[in-house]
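Worked Example 4.2. Consider the chain below.
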Amino acid sequence: MGIFGRKNDDGSETPATGADLATLTGDYTIDQAHSTFGFTARHAMVTNVKGKFDEFSGELHLDGSDPSASTASIDIVMDSIDTGSADRDGHLKSADFFKTEEFPAMTFRSTKAESLGGDDYRVTGDLTILGTTRPISIDLEFNGAAKDPFGNERVGFEGKAEILRSDWGITWNAALETGGVLVSDKIKLNFDISAIKKS
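Applying the procedure from the previous section yields the following structure tokens:
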């Protein structure tokens, strides 16, 4: 179901009413307990290692009648990285990678939002890692809106993006005897976002 429509039983879509749009439009806080900011990197050229950040905060402004007026602001605590291995996490926090003591946060600030049709949207913004800021585009799918049993009005999105970590100065690697490198330059980002509307 897109922001602008309501899905009927036969699969067709009925345009949303003004009241529906008014209900959607507003300011939201990302719910850390029900959201995930994750990533995937290729390891040793043969397998994928997945990780996530356990501590983050974020604010969204959604405009149901004009998606281009929507905004997003996200701050991620780099020291909260979790790949399921304490040794690997420690290495990622070190000067070889994220230098978390010197650069404790990764931030995203949106600069553009656009509808791609249906449930699909694209948000472009500035991603800052290790003090370096570069633009990225995130493709998002709107998963819907609902009121939970506690009376919170929620919206949900899932998204993905790809970056080259070297663009942010993260270049550590090790050569493999069989050719190639230990850690891929390309990193896949994935997001599952549940956000609660502010009263």
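DSSP finds two helices and 13 strands in the chain. The longest helix spans residues 86-93. Compare this with Example 4.1 before moving on.
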